Structure to design on (48 residues):
């Protein structure tokens, strides 16, 4: 899961010397997936 800390949400890192085909890496994608799931669950709770 997330290897880069942030207090405002998910973050990912890319290397400027590599093309877009090299990222995002699996752990960044998993972090985004889990954050999206959590946001959806909370939104469902408040929507009623």
């Amino acid at each position: 899961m997330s290897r880069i800390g942030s207090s405002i949400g998910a973050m990912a890192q890319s290397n400027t010397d590599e093309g877009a085909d090299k990222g995002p890496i699996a752990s960044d994608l998993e972090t985004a997936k889990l954050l999206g799931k959590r946001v959806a669950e909370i939104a469902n709770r408040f929507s009623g």
Remarks:
- The first helix runs from residue 26 to 47.
- Helices lie at 26-47.
- The chain has a mean pLDDT of 82.
- The radius of gyration is 14 Å.
